[in-house]
Design goal:
The protein has 397 residues and is of the alpha/beta class. It folds into 2 domains: 161 residues, Rossmann fold; 188 residues, Hypothetical protein af1432, CATH 1.10.3210.10. The chain has 18 helices and 7 strands. β6, α6 and β7 form a beta-alpha-beta unit. The longest helix has 64 residues. The protein is rod-shaped. It starts with a helix and ends in a 9-residue tail after the last helix. 31% of the residues are buried.
Length: 397
C-alpha cells in the first residue's frame, strides 16, 4: 500500500540529519558507492534517495524498468533497490535482467505487498534481500549495508580466484620450464651414453644419431604424436646400448661370428632392456629397445614376435635402421645409394618389415634422406626431443 503523509513526514524527518552528524556517519569511502533506486512513487524515491545521500552514497533514481536499464547501461552501480510492482512491469523481471548481465550486483526488492510469498519468490530468483513498506530508516540502512558487504565479499572472492588462477598459471609455467630443463638434461645424458657406445664400437660411429633422425622423420610422416615420437626417438638412439655388455672380442671381431657368439650378440636386446627399464623416463623406450630386432614375419629375436605384436616404434625403427645400414660403409662392403636402399627395403616388405611402414617410407624421396644424413654429419648432433614437437614432416608443409 502507499505510505500516508504522516509516515512520509516521519521518514523525511529521520532522513534529514544535521550536517555534523552526517559527517560523522558517512565515511569518505562511501562517496564512491553508487546505488540505483527504482520506484514509481516519487515521494518514496525521494525519501530513500535522501536517506542514502545523507549517508554519503551516490544515488540515482528511475521511475520504471526501461529507465533503470538505460541508467545501468551508462553507469556502474554497487547496489540496486527496486520496487516489486514498477510502473512498466515486474520488478522481479528487472532483477533477473540485472542478474543475467551483472551477477555480482546485489538487488534488494522493495514491496508494499505484505505477502511473504512474494518476498520468498524474489529471493529464490536471485534477490539479495527485500524491504516491506513502510520500513524504518535503520532497517533500510542496515539492509543496504549488508548488501554492500555481500558485494564486497563477492568481489574479494572473485579477485582471489583470479589471483589464484594467475598464481597457478605462473607456477605451471615454472614447472613446465623446469620439466623442459630436466628433459634437456636427459638428452645430454643420452648423448653421453651414445658417445660412449661409439667409442666402444667405432665401426658404427654416428649410426645412433643418423638412425634417430631417420626414425623421427618417418614417425612424423606416419602421424605419430610428438609425445610418442620422443619415446621412439630415445629408443632409437639407445637401441644398441646393450652392446656395452657384450665382450669386445665378440663385438669387435673382424670375421663372421660363431653360433655361440651370435647367441651372445643377440643378448644385447635383453641387456639394453635391463639397463633402461629401471630408469623411469626411459621405461617406455626400453620396450622398443627390447624388440628392435623382431621381424614382421616372426623370424626375429629375442621373442619371435610378429606383425602388430611388435611395438609401433620398433617397426618404424627397423626400417630406419636398415636405411642407415645399407647407406653406410661397412668393413665388408661400401655404402650403397638411397635409391638402392628403397629397393632393398621394398623387397623385404612383409617379411622383415611392416608393409604399412614401408608404404609410408616409399613416399619420402631419396633426396630428403640424403639431405637429412648430410645435415647430421655436418652438425654432428642428435635431434633433441625439444626439436621434435616443432619438427615438420619431410613431405608435408
Amino acid at each position: 500500500m502507499a505510505l500516508n503523509l504522516a509516515e512520509l513526514g516521519a521518514m523525511f524527518a529521520a532522513a534529514k540529519l544535521p550536517a555534523e552528524a552526517n559527517a560523522r556517519e558517512a565515511p569518505g569511502l562511501r562517496r564512491s558507492i553508487r546505488i540505483l533506486v527504482v520506484d514509481g512513487e516519487e515521494p518514496v524515491r525521494s525519501m530513500i534517495g535522501a536517506t542514502l545521500e545523507n549517508q554519503g552514497y551516490h544515488v540515482e533514481m528511475a521511475v520504471d524498468g526501461r529507465e533503470a536499464i538505460e541508467i545501468l547501461n551508462q553507469n556502474a552501480f554497487d547496489l540496486v533497490l527496486t520496487e516489486v510492482l514498477i510502473r512498466d512491469g515486474n520488478g522481479i523481471a528487472l532483477m533477473e535482467y540485472i542478474r543475467g548481465k551483472q551477477p555480482q550486483l546485489p538487488v534488494v526488492m522493495v514491496t508494499s505487498v505484505h505477502d511473504i510469498d512474494v518476498a520468498i519468490d524474489s529471493m529464490h530468483r536471485g534477490a539479495y534481500d527485500y524491504l516491506l513498506k513502510p520500513f524504518e530508516r535503520e532497517h533500510l540502512l542496515g539492509t543496504v549495508q549488508r548488501a554492500l558487504e555481500y558485494r564486497q565479499t563477492l568481489e574479494e572472492s572473485n579477485s582471489y580466484q583470479q589471483n589464484l588462477e594467475l598464481v597457478v598459471r605462473a607456477r605451471t609455467e615454472l614447472l613446465r620450464q623446469a620439466m623442459e630443463d630436466l628433459e634437456h638434461s636427459y638428452d645430454i645424458t643420452l648423448e653421453a651414453l651414445g658417445d660412449a657406445l661409439d667409442l666402444k664400437d667405432s665401426e658404427t660411429e654416428g649410426h645412433s644419431r643418423r638412425v634417430t633422425a631417420y626414425t623421427i622423420a618417418l614417425a612424423r610422416e606416419m602421424g605419430i604424436s610428438s609425445a610418442e615420437i620422443k619415446v621412439i626417438a630415445r629408443a632409437a638412439f639407445l637401441h644398441d646400448i646393450g652392446k656395452m655388455a657384450i665382450p669386445d672380442k665378440i663385438l669387435c671381431k673382424p670375421g663372421p661370428l660363431s653360433k655361440e657368439e651370435q647367441r651372445v650378440m643377440r643378448d644385447h636386446c635383453t641387456c639394453g632392456y635391463d639397463m633402461l627399464r629401471k630408469i623411469p623416463f626411459l621405461s617406455a623406450a626400453a620396450e622398443i629397445v627390447f624388440t628392435h630386432q623382431e621381424r614382421h614375419d616372426g623370424s626375429g629375436y629375442p621373442s619371435g614376435l610378429r606383425g602388430s605384436e611388435i611395438p609401433t616404434g620398433a617397426r618404424i625403427f627397423a626400417v630406419a635402421d636398415a636405411l642407415d645400414a645399407i647407406t653406410s660403409d661397412r668393413p665388408y662392403r661400401k655404402a650403397r645409394s638411397f635409391e638402392a636402399a628403397r629397393k632393398e627395403i621394398l623387397r623385404h616388405s612383409g617379411t622383415q618389415f611392416d608393409p604399412g611402414v614401408v608404404e609410408v617410407f616409399l613416399k619420402i624421396s631419396p633426396e630428403i634422406w640424403h639431405e637429412l644424413r648430410r645435415e647430421i654429419l655436418a652438425h654432428n648432433k642428435l635431434f633433441s626431443t625439444f626439436d621434435i614437437a616443432n619438427a615438420k614432416s619431410p613431405t608435408k608443409p
